[in-house]
Amino acid sequence: MTIAVIDYGMGNLHSVAKALEHVTHEHVVITRDPRVIGGATRLVLPGQGAIRDCMGELERTELKGLVQELLATQSKPLLGICVGQQMLMDESEENGGTACLGFLPGKVRYFGQNLLGENGERLKVPHMGWNQVSQRQGHPLWEGIEDGTRFYFVHSYYVDAKHDREVFGATRYAGIDAHVATGRDAVFAVQFHPEKSANNGLRLLENFVNWAP
After folding, report:
1. Helix crossing, 13-23 with 198-210: angle to 10°?
2. Cis ω on the peptide bond leading into residue 126 (within 30° of 0)?
3. How far is it, in rounded angstroms, from Cα 147 to Cα 173?
4. Measuring CA to CA, how many Å separate 199 from each of 16, 82, 150, 203?
5. Helix, strand or coil for residue 192?
6. What confidence tier does 75 reach under pLDDT thresholds 50, 70, 90?
7. Is 193 noted as a catalytic residue in this protein?
8. What's the number of CA atoms in the CB half-sphere (13 Å) around residue 95?
């Protein structure tokens, strides 16, 4: 039993791997070997930084086609984290427009500039720190996690999914309902960092390890 954290050169790989090791006795490996990724029982797609760089590195390491194939076949559970969630969408506004993996219909949008909160306070981009996640619908990865639980975020762009049925969680920031938990079938992805979100983040990772879609 192996959980493969896909290493295409971008993402908080070691923190994610250590958090997974904390919640499971399964073998956790950081790898870019297609044979190891293809033979793993579960996959984690991380991401950090600019999405054009992430997509570019995925192509440079020749892993893009493999990831797309795994998404298409839904042969094993996959967890996307941070930009790993954004990469699953059709396209992103970042870097003047970047094509993504096209697994989930929708776009990745910029929060904007000169943002004001609902009480008139000035807000910063990136959206950084702890924020509540509203669970839009039930999912096995929410087991044991209360609706409205706070998770840790660092992002300037957010997912705007096309279909409500593929939205499992949202966070409100600057009057925007950002879709911060999305998925379909054996894929679940989050904008926040579960590996930095204390006990509730670890519970989500544990739920992923035990998930049998």
Report:
1. 70
2. yes
3. 17
4. 14, 18, 11, 6
5. coil
6. confident
7. yes
8. 13
- Structure confidence by residue, pLDDT tens digits, 114-171: 777 777 778 888 899 999 999 999 999 999 999 999 999 999 999 999 999 999 999 9
Q: Is 168 exposed, middle or buried (0-12, 13-18, 19+ CB in 10 A)?
A: buried
pLDDT of 116: 74
Residue 10 has pLDDT above 90, yes or no: no
Active site residue 54: no
Is residue 82 flagged as an active site residue? yes
Inform me whether the pLDDT recorded for 40 exceeds 90: yes
Mean pLDDT, all residues of the chain:
94
Of 127, 155, 179, 193, the active-site residue reads 193
> CA distances (Å), 65 to each of 12, 25, 32, 195, in order?
22, 30, 13, 27
Q: Give the pLDDT confidence score for residue 11 in this predicted structure.
A: 79
Tell me the one-letter amino acid at 140: P
**Which one is catalytic: 57, 94, 195, 206?**
195
Q: Which candidate in 82, 100, 127, 206 is catalytic?
A: 82
70 has a pLDDT exceeding 90? yes
Retrieve residue 11's tokens: 């993402």
Residues constituting the chain: 213
